[in-house]
Amino acid sequence: MTIACPECGIFEDLPPLGRRHTAYCACCRIDLETTRGRSLNAALACSFATLVLLFPVNLLPILRVDLFGRHSENVIGAGVIALWRQGWIVLAGLSAVFVVILPFVRFSLLTSVLGALRFGYRPRWLGPVFRWAMWLDLWAMLDVYLLAAGVAYYRLSNVGYATITIELGGQCFIAAALLTMLTRASLDRRTVWRAIARECEARPAERLVGCAVCDLVQPASRDGERCLRCRARLSRRKWDAPWTTAAIVIAAILLFIPANVYPMNISHQLGVKVGYTILTGIEDLFKNGQWPLGVLVFCTSVLIPMGKNIAVGWCVVSVWRRSGVISWRRPRCSAWWPSSDGGRRPIRSPSCSSCR
Ligand SMILES: [Zn+2]
Ligand SMILES: [Zn+2]
């Protein structure tokens, strides 16, 4: 079976994998397919359980705050309505979309696809629906919200005269976030794509284009049309990618400075203005013995974004300078580079006896 690597675009022939095996890209070393720790049944169970848990998460109280003998309970839906009533219309809309609607949509779509495959149905909508389910994973990350909720819980619990209790909705939220991670860990997307429609082996002389979503290799004459499997638009190249990437990276690096120098929020405590930057928040976590949470916040808020921007910036500069350093890991001779006209040419490796 021939596929296009989702990261570097190289065309590769994948052999059938046995149990507990992983196939890597010969060029960029990304996992192309793995049977290690992956199971469609486990992914279906986790996805369905997450979908069911989303109902109590949105309908039951998340936290209970006791303050000076009075108590209040926080329900996600009521919080969105409160934001709307206080004039935070954009924030209310974003919260409703990202916290309430998208997780429901994502896990409904994913459960539908995995359920259909599990019970042997192969309707035509499986490909586009699975494509949407994968795309929504970027925008409906309950596990990321769990980290934010953990920091908020810590902040509230540090207010000496307030007692914070995690209610049933909050417990369901924690379980749903953990199941989201388990769904991601147990799902091998190539197995799902292959169950929807199998790839076939391409002839070496054939001119090809690879789908950037499902990696299905198709004749180059289909460039600009819809993918046969997932219905995404086929495109041989993104010609403006270095310029667009450079603009976004420069903007991200510039915004990263005020994001860390200026406070994220300012609160009034007993008439005194208190502003928290990301770094002072991390420092507080360390001072109060919450160092695991401090390390996690530092990595996710400072280290990873900065490292990612520097790495992507370095890649863009390397592309502009036509540097050979970026292709330091040459593919094996069995691999095929896509050439600019959509054809393929074999890479000859000096370390391979048949190439020599
Ligand atoms: Zn690759
Ligand atoms: Zn596709």
Protein model, in words:
It is a single chain. The chain is of the alpha+beta class and about 350 residues long. Helices cover about 50% and strands about 15% of the residues. The chain has ten helices and 13 strands. The strands form six sheets. The chain has a three-stranded antiparallel beta sheet. Strands 1-2 form a two-stranded antiparallel ribbon. It has a two-stranded antiparallel sheet with strand order 3-4. Helix 1 (about 40-60) runs antiparallel to helix 3, helix 5 (about 140-155) packs antiparallel against helix 6 (about 170-185) and helix 8 (about 240-260) packs antiparallel against helix 10. The chain is globular. Bound molecules: zinc ion (2 copies). One zinc ion binds next to loops.
Q: Helices and strands in order, then pairings?
A:
Elements: E1 2-4, E2 11-13, E3 22-24, E4 31-34, H1 40-59, E5 63-67, E6 70-74, H2 76-85, H3 89-118, H4 126-136, H5 142-157, E7 162-166, H6 168-186, H7 189-196, E8 208-210, E9 217-219, H8 241-261, E10 265-269, E11 272-276, H9 278-287, H10 291-320, E12 336-338, E13 344-346
Antiparallel strand pairs: 1-2, 3-4, 5-6, 5-7, 8-9, 10-11, 12-13
Helix pairs in contact: 1-3, 1-6, 2-3, 3-4, 5-6, 8-10, 9-10
One zinc ion (ZN) binds next to loops.
List keywords for this structure.
three-stranded antiparallel β-sheet, 49% helix, binds zinc ion, 356 residues, disordered C terminus, two-stranded antiparallel sheet, 13 strands, single chain, alpha+beta
